[in-house]
Amino acid sequence: MGTQQFVVIGLGRFGMSLGMELIELGYEVMGVDRSEEVVEEVGGRFTYAAVADATDEEMLRSLGIRNFDCGIVAIGENMQTSILAAILLKELGVKKVVAKAITVLHGRALEKIGVDQVIFPERDMGIRVAHQLVTPNLLDYIKLSDDYSIVEMRVPTCLNSRTVADLNSRSRFGCTIVALRTEAGVTIAPTALDRMHEGDVMVIAGPNDRIEQFEREVVNIEE
Questions:
Q1: Which of 8, 127, 149, 203 is buried most, with the most CB atoms less than 10 Å from its CB?
Q2: Are 5 and 67 in contact (CB under 8 A)?
Q3: Kind and range of the H or E element at 204?
Q4: What gap in Å lies between CA 97 and CA 72, rounded to an integer?
Q5: Domain stops at, among 66, 90, 119
Q6: Which of 29, 95, 85 lies closest to 53 in space, CA to CA?
Q7: Which residue range is the domain that position 153 belongs to?
Q8: What pLDDT shows up at residue 130?
Q9: Cβ contact 82:34 at 8 Å
Q10: Predicted TM-score of the model (pTM)
Q11: What InterPro entries does the annotation carry (predicted)?
């Protein structure tokens, strides 16, 4: 099986960052932007780069867009162009279409035309930063749905040398520790006897309200 291929349309900060990260992960990425200056700046950093109007069907067809496994519409400033580009990617047969939305209305429009995944980078980053500001031990926050989240939290001093059973997160908070990351590596689905140490990272999954309770109370557990 060949390397999965992505096409990123719109090489602003979001599109560039996403494309470069995919390349770092070992995937092939074509970057597309209507600005020749932007495409020249990309240079050899992308697998391929092309100057093209994302609303020109024949131009996209000539780039072999239909052969890509995933098309990402990273255009955020022009809602109309974003929607038209997403429609063309769908019509040209791209297997999965992902698009950036700048407003709720924009997101709804993208969903209506059949976009497989709508991303709200500014909103999602705002949520992450807010949680990190109020919870110093919180490293990352991923909202899975309106009801469930996954968080990465640094093990606080009060839990140093405690076991998963000592924390008793499932019955006490309604949350589950799904992984532990230590200097030795990552333990998936740790057992009740697995021991935590200050500075390790807990990956916790659960309902949003229980996650918030966990964030508030876990650092106050008495030693």
A1: 8
A2: yes
A3: strand 201-207
A4: 6
A5: 119
A6: 85
A7: 124-220
A8: 63
A9: no
A10: 0.65
A11: NAD(P)-bd_dom_sf, RCK_C, RCK_C_sf, RCK_N, Trk_Ktr_HKT_K-transport
Please give the Cα distance from 36 to 42 (Å, whole number).
10
DSSP, res 76: -
Q: Which residue has the higher pLDDT, 218 or 139?
A: 218
Residue 156 CA: distances (Å) to CA of 14, 28, 196, 222: 33, 40, 9, 11
User: Is residue 13 domain-shared with residue 113, that is, in the same domain?
Assistant: yes
Burial class (CB in 10 A: 0-12, 13-18, 19+), 105: exposed
Distances (CA, A) of 43 to 6, 24, 25, 39, 40: 17, 16, 19, 7, 5
Are 75 and 129 within one domain?
A: no
The H-assigned helical ranges of the chain are 13-24, 36-42, 57-62, 79-91, 104-112, 121-134, 164-167, 169-173, 208-217
In tens, the pLDDT along 119-161 reads 887 766 666 666 665 556 666 767 777 788 888 888 888 888 8
Amino acid at site 39: V
Which tops the pLDDT comparison, 99 or 76? 99
